[in-house]
Amino acid sequence: MPHGSEQLLFELFVIFAAAKLAGEMFERISLPGVLGEILAGTVLGPYALAWVRPSDTISSVAEVGAIFVLFTAGLETSPGDLIRVGRKAILVAIAGVVLPFLLGFAYMKLRGDPSTEAIFVGAAMVATSVGITARVLSDLRVISSDTAKIILGAAVFDDILGMVLLALVAGLASGNGLEWLHLGVLLAEAAAFVLFMIFVAPRIFRRVHPKVEKLSTQDASLIVALAICLFLSWLSAKIGMAAIIGAFFAGLMFSDFAPRWNLPSRVRGITDFLAPYFFFSIGAQLNPRLFTGKVLLAAVVVSVLAIVSKVIGCGLPLLREGWLSVFRVGVGMMPRGEVALIVALVGLQSGIVTQSTYAIVVFMTALTTLTAPPILRILYRNETRGGENPTAAV
Amino acid sequence: MPHGSEQLLFELFVIFAAAKLAGEMFERISLPGVLGEILAGTVLGPYALAWVRPSDTISSVAEVGAIFVLFTAGLETSPGDLIRVGRKAILVAIAGVVLPFLLGFAYMKLRGDPSTEAIFVGAAMVATSVGITARVLSDLRVISSDTAKIILGAAVFDDILGMVLLALVAGLASGNGLEWLHLGVLLAEAAAFVLFMIFVAPRIFRRVHPKVEKLSTQDASLIVALAICLFLSWLSAKIGMAAIIGAFFAGLMFSDFAPRWNLPSRVRGITDFLAPYFFFSIGAQLNPRLFTGKVLLAAVVVSVLAIVSKVIGCGLPLLREGWLSVFRVGVGMMPRGEVALIVALVGLQSGIVTQSTYAIVVFMTALTTLTAPPILRILYRNETRGGENPTAAV
Question: Among partner residues B215, B217, B268, which is closest to A266 by beta-carbon distance?
Fold first, then answer.
C-alpha cells in the first residue's frame, strides 16, 4: 500500500475532473472548453487557491498530453495537403516571426530598457503555442480545412524559428556571445528533419505497412504508431526542437493509413485522457498577482503588440484569400505558450531580465492564450454551414 | 528545451519499444506476449544489463497502466455475471488464501525459522496478482468465459484478504502487536465498498446515464468513465485496498453501457499505451543474482508450494465442474505480484525478515508470474473451438 500512489491518484483525479468540469461549463455558455480547462488550472493552481500543486509526475503527464494533442492533429493532416499549403505556411511563419520580434524589441527600447532585455522580450513574442490552437480547431471539427492546414504548417516552421531564437538568446544569457556554429547546426538539423518527415517518411511507411499488418501482437498497428510517435518526439527534443514537433510529424506519417487502421478513435482515447493535464498545467503557471500599476500597463501594451503583430504578420501573406482567411490564420497563430515562458525563464535565471519583465511575458502568454480560442470559434462559426472547405466530422 | 523531458521521452520510448518487441517475439513462438514484456524488464532493468532504470515517473506511469488493465477487465465483465459466480468465487478466494498461508508457514517453521518470519512468508504467498492473469485472458479472448469470471471475482476477494493480512503483518512489524480495531475497520470498509459497487452503483448509473449523453463536452461518455475510474482507484487506495480493485469495479459499473458508448476500443487505446510500462516494471524488479545454493533450494520449494497450494486451494471448490475448470481457475490464480513484494519489503525494512527470506519471496513471485501465462494458454487452447462457453471476440 504505497501512499505515494494514493497522492498521485488523487491529483490525477482532481485535475482531470476539475478541468473537464470547467470545460463543460464553458461549452454550455458557448465558450471553448479548452479555456475552461486552462482557467481551472489558474484558479486551483499554486498562485490562486493553491488546492492543487502539480507535482513533477503531473508535469510529465502534461508533457505527454501535449504530445498526443499534436499527434492527433498530425493524424488529421495529410502530407499532400501540407505540401500544397507549404509555400503559404512558410511565408506566414516568417512574417509572423519577424514582425512580433521587431515590435517587441522596439517597444522595450522605447521604454528605455537595455538591448539585451528588449531582445528577450522580442524573442518571447515569437513562437506560437500550436497545442491550444490544434485543440480548438479539432473541437470545432474544422481541422481539415485549408486555413487549419496553413496554421498547423506555419506553427511548425515558426516553432523551429522560435527554437533558433531561443538558442540565440541562451547564447546571450550564457555570456559566451553567439555560437554561430551551434545555431547553424540546429537550423540544418531541423530543416533536414522536417524535409525528411514530409517527403520521405510517408513513402517509406507506405512500403513497410503490410509488414505491420502481419505482426502477431494484438493492436499491432496502434502499437507501432505509438512507438514511432514516442521515438520522433524524443528525437526532435534531442536535436533541439520541441518534442511536439516530432509528435505532429509522427501523426502526419500515419495519416494516410489512419482510417484503415482505426487510429483516430483509439489515439483520441489517449488524448482525451492526457490532454487535460497539459491545459490545466498551462493555467497553473499563470500568477494573477504579479501585476500592479506600471507593470500592468506595459504588460497590456506588450500583449496588444503581440496580438496585432501576429495577426498582421501571419495574415498579410494571405490577403488574396480574403479577410476571413487572414483573420483565421492570424488569430490561430496568436497563442504563445511554453517557448515564451522558457525564453523568459532563461533570461530571469541568468539575471538579464528583471522580475517585472518576466511578469510582462507571462501576462502576454496568458492573454494571447485566453483570447484566441473564443475569437477562433467566432471566426469559424459559419464553417460547418458551407465555409471554405466543408469538413468531414471525425 | 527542458532536458528532463528529453530523458523522460527516451525512457518512455525505449521501455515501450523493448516491451512490445519482446512481446512480439514471444507471440511468434506461441508464448504469451505479456511474458516477453516482463522479461524485457528483467533483462534491461537495473539488476541485469541496467540499460534502463525506471524513474519515479515511469513507476507512476506503470501504476496507471495497471489501473487501466483492470479497468479494461472490468469493462468486459458484467455485474450480473459476477453475482452469478459470486458464491464460487468467494469459496475459491478463501481456500486459495488459507492453504498457501498454512503451507508457507509450516515449511518455514520446519526449516527452523522463527514464527514471525514464517508468518511473513505465508502472507506473501496469499495475494494473486490479477493484472497478469487479466491480460493473458484478454489476449486469449476468453475473458467472458465462466472460469475467467470466477478468476476475476476470486482475485478481487483474495486481494482484499491479502490487504487484511498485510495490515496484520504490518502490525507485527511495527512491534505494536495486532490492532484488531484497525483490521476490523479495513475489512468492513472493503466489504461495504465491494457490495456497493456490485449491487448499488450499476443501478444508480443506469438512472443517470441519459444525463451523461446530454453533456456538451466532446467524448463526454469516455470522459465520465475515466473520471470515475480515477476516483474509484483513489478511493480504494484511500481505504487501504489496492487501487486496481477500484479500477476493476469502475469498469464493472460501465460494462453494460460499454458497447453503446464505444468504450472498449477507446479505453483499449489507453491500455495499449500504458500497460507495457506496468509489465516491464514488474520484470525490472526481479533480481536474478540473489540466488545461490541453499537460498535457491528454499526458493524452489516455496515456489512449488505456492503453485501447488494455489492450484489445489482454488481448484478444489470447483471439482464438480470438471478438471479443466479446476486447473484453469487454479493456474489463473497462481501469479503473485505487488502485494507479495510489499509484504516482503515491510518485513525486510522492519528487520523481521532476512535478506535471504526476502530473496525467496521475490523468487516465488517471479516463478509464479512467469509460469502461469504459458500454462493458461495451453489450458484455454480449445476454448475457441467450442469450450465451456464459446466467447465473443472483443
Answer: B268
Helices (H), B178-242: 180-195, 201-213, 220-238
- Whether A28 is covered by a domain: the verdict is no
Across B100-123, average pLDDT:
89
Q: Which residue of B has its CA nearest to A243?
A: B6
Chain A residue with minimum CA distance to B30: A216
Q: Kindly report the nearest CA distance between residue B238 and chain A, in angstroms.
A: 6
Q: Is residue B285 part of a domain?
A: no
Nearest Cα residue in chain A from B17: A227
pLDDT of residue A348: 78
Nearest to A138 by CA among A52, A194, A74, A221: A74
CB within 8 Å: B270 and A273: yes
Q: Environment class of residue A392 by beta-carbon count within 10 Å: exposed (0-12), middle (13-18) or buried (19+)?
A: exposed
Nearest CA in chain A to B163: A1
Give the Cα separation of A99 and A110 in Å (integer): 16
Question: At B305, is the pLDDT very low, low, confident or very high (cuts 50, 70, 90)?
Answer: very high
Q: Tell whether ipTM is more than 0.85.
A: no
Which pLDDT belongs to residue A176?
63
Residue B30 sits at the chain A interface (C-beta within 8 Å):
no
Are B166 and A10 an interchain contact pair (Cβ–Cβ within 8 Å)? no
| SS3 of chain A | CCHHHHHHHHHHHHHHHHHHHHHHHHHHCCCCHHHHHHHHHHHHCCCCCCCCCCCHHHHHHHHHHHHHHHHHHHHCCCHHHHHHCHHHHHHHHHHHHHHHHHHHHHHHHHHCCCHHHHHHHHHHCCCECHHHHHHHHHHCCCCCCHHHHHHHHHHHHHHHHHHHHHHHHHHHHHCCCCCHHHHHHHHHHHHHHHHHHHHHHHHHHHHHHHHHHCCCCCCHHHHHHHHHHHHHHHHHHHCCCCHHHHHHHHHHHHHHHCCCCCHHHHHHHHHHHHHHHHHHHHHHCCCHHHCCHHHHHHHHHHHHHHHHHHHHHHHHHHHHHCHHHHHHHHHHCCCECHHHHHHHHHHHHCCCCCHHHHHHHHHHHHHHHHHHHHHHHHHCCCHHHCCCCCCCCC
Per the structure, the complete domain to which residue B245 belongs is given by 53-274+291-380
Which residues does chain B have within 8 Å of residue A13's beta carbon, measured at their own beta carbons? 227, 230-231, 233-234
Please tell me the distance from the alpha carbon of residue A367 to that of residue A298, in angstroms, as a whole number: 13
pLDDT means over runs of 10, chain A (394 residues): 73 96 90 86 89 88 91 84 84 91 92 86 86 84 88 83 75 67 80 87 88 87 95 89 85 88 91 94 79 82 92 88 90 83 76 81 85 90 54 37
pLDDT tens-digit series, residues B316-368: 888 888 889 999 999 999 988 767 877 777 777 777 888 788 888 888 888 88
Residue B393, domain member (yes or no)? no
Distance set, CA B283 to CA A171, A205, B16, B47, B299 (Å): 44, 32, 13, 10, 18
Number of domains in chain B: 1
Question: Rounded distance, CA A125 to CA A103, Å?
Answer: 9
d(CA A386, CA B52): 53
Q: Which amino acid is at A59?
A: S
CATH code at position A57: 1.20.1530.20
> Considering the entire predicted model, what is its pTM?
0.84
Q: Which of residues 207-246 of B touch A (CB under 8 A)?
A: 215-220, 222-223, 226-227, 230-231, 233-234, 237-238, 240, 242-243
Q: Does A384 touch chain B (CB under 8 A)?
A: no
Are B237 and A9 an interchain contact pair (Cβ–Cβ within 8 Å)? yes
Q: Are A328 and A152 in contact (CB under 8 A)?
A: no
Residue B10 domain-assigned? no
